[in-house]
Amino acid sequence: xxxxxxxxxxxxxxxxxxxxxxxxxxxxxxxxxxxxxxxxxxxxxxxxxxxxxxxxxxxxxxxxxxxxxxxxxxxxxxxxxxxxxxxxxxxxxxxxxxxxxxxxxxxxxxxxxxxxxxxxxxxxxxxxxxxxxxxxxxxxxxxxxxxxxxxxxxxxxxxxxxxxxxxxxxxxxxxxxxxxxxxxxxxxxxxxxxxxxxxxxxxxx
Length: 205
Hints:
4 helices, 6-stranded mixed beta sheet, 3-stranded antiparallel beta sheet, 9 strands, alpha+beta
């Protein structure tokens, strides 16, 4: 789901930039790493706006206790369904333009910012190609201090390039595979715990 979400966002941005700069079939924005593992600029990223996932933030404001509901196929069992895992995505939008195209990179980055300012939420209604399991992707511009930005680029392993950071909320991961658990007739008092087995219909022969 992470790839599908970011691929759709990148495609939308790319189409917008290609139209603004009349680039024909040449890509203007891609989903890619900024640099290779050895620190060199990734060849496919050069002279483009690059979207890079730099962090997955686990959203913990919701509880993650299982929900149980009756299994209609088996009388004495229930199906347990856990609440979804929710993640926010920190995505760096970078103008990877080297001299003598540095000024062109600033133009592309400015237009990319305009794009996300105008379309700061992606839904199935305004983006039909969005995965139907995604209700909404909302974009929040993140302000970094000089120290935070220096640390970020140090972690990436590259020298600073003109960029902005967005937090995308949110992706929910919900498995369709459900685990069946025995149905408990009742909870016995502590002194009578040995009787629990007798109360469970599945243990009777």
